[in-house]
Amino acid sequence: MTEISSITPNLQGNTEANRAGAELNANFDMFLKLLTTQMQNQDPLDPMDTSDYTQQLVQYSQVEQSIQQTGTLKDILAALSTQDLAQSANFIGQRAELDSPTSALSDQRPAQWSWEAERSIAALTATITDVRGRVIETRELDPSSAGEMAWDGSLSAGGGTAAAGAYTLSLSATDAAGQEVPVAIRSTGVIDEVATRNGTVMLGINGLNFPTTSLVRVIAEK
Predict the structure, then answer these.
(1) Count of other CB atoms within 10 angstroms of residue 205
(2) For a surface tag, which of 5, 125, 198, 205 has the fewest beta carbons within 10 Å of its beta carbon?
(3) d(CA 208, CA 47)
(4) Residues 6+ apart with CB under 8 A from 141
(5) pLDDT in tens, 5-37
């Protein structure tokens, strides 16, 4: 599935914590061997100053504690991620609105969007682009300040149908005076899958994955 990016923190830290712990243990073992060797071979009449070694022992202890706490925190976050996944499973079968202009077209379902303008508009033009930024379709829409669009992939120029995949909608709206009007665009569709990707709960809609952080509204399907 194609994925929409998320800013949710990556939780793949357990492996790093384990690696850091192993390196710390190896260095600490080497340190103890060197310390033991020096103590065994020191001059009894001029014993070594142990203050530096004591300070280093304290530093090792602090680093070890930090690594252990990091590992514990990662475990807690992983458990929370699993809990979020279980809760998000309730969204399956529900209709969602997401803060994204990108929607998915499949052989079974059209790409769908909703929009809302800041004020009344007199003209509205829709432009649909593919993942490479190429313009695939351009059409005039009913100039209502709020509405929905379902695109089945049909192409106005030359006929034919666009291939399944992710498509992005942009809207150019103007008022009666010809002034540009900002329009908020949302991707819509029925949630058919919930999964985790790198610790982030993702909602699958028509073959496209969205992070739950982009979810704006959930509407029960009738």
Answers:
(1) 26
(2) 5
(3) 70
(4) 124, 125, 126, 147, 149, 171
(5) 443 344 344 555 566 556 656 666 666 676 667
